[in-house]
Write a structure and sequence with these properties.
Layout lengths: L3 H8 L9 E2 L10 E6 L2 E11 L2 E3 L4 E4 L2 E6 L4 E7 L9 E10 L2 E18 L10 E15 L5 E11 L5 E10 L1
Antiparallel strand pairs: 1-4, 2-3, 3-6, 4-5, 6-7, 7-8, 8-9, 9-10, 10-11, 11-12
């Protein structure tokens, strides 16, 4: 069953610009709540939320969820993880943020971002004429920052990666900064 917006577009003969990638209902189960306790151990509760599930309808390939939110109830902490949904990069983390509740207000205490690239490598042609290509993912850059419980910057780091023609890392440049 397709979402109504997609059905309307295809009935009119015009497909969504994202077609054949759609956001259908998730076919399966996911963990939405975890409760842990034991004798003499305080209870711990964690809530999970997922979104932006994508599927390529031509290949049947799942691109997975676009994000996951994790709430640590006792610590009053939220973590949001965003995932890449691109061929060759599916499941890689694009960004993550951690927020802490302080005096009723959510404060960003940690953030990280990653940038990737994908290259296509053609394989040798087989005698029957079949040829395929491989996708090579490369981590190009990462950045992260940490903040104190008032949201004041403590530290920042940026890493840039360079590769040779075979995809081997040849240099990593890291820049560190204090708040």
């Amino acid at each position: 069953l397709l979402p109504a917006t997609v059905e309307k577009r295809t009935k009119a003969g015009v497909r969504s610009p994202a077609y054949p990638v759609l956001d259908p209902p998730m076919p399966g189960y996911v963990v939405t709540k975890l409760e842990a306790s034991g004798p003499g151990i305080p209870s711990r509760n964690t809530n999970y939320r997922y979104g932006d599930y994508r599927v390529n309808t031509l290949t049947g390939r799942s691109f997975g969820f676009g994000f996951q939110e994790i709430e640590d109830v006792e610590r009053r902490r939220w973590t949001t993880i965003r995932y890449l949904q691109t061929d060759g990069l599916v499941g890689n983390v694009a960004s993550s943020n951690v927020e802490q509740t302080i005096s009723g207000k959510r404060v960003l205490i940690s953030a990280s971002n990653s940038r990737y690239s994908v290259s296509h490598i053609d394989a040798a042609q087989l005698p029957d004429g079949f040829r395929t290509s491989f996708l090579r993912a490369r981590l190009e850059e990462t950045s992260s920052e940490s903040r104190d419980l008032m949201g004041i910057l403590i530290s920042r780091q940026n890493d840039v990666f360079r590769y040779d023609g075979s995809g081997n890392p040849v240099s990593i440049r890291s820049v560190f900064a204090d708040g």
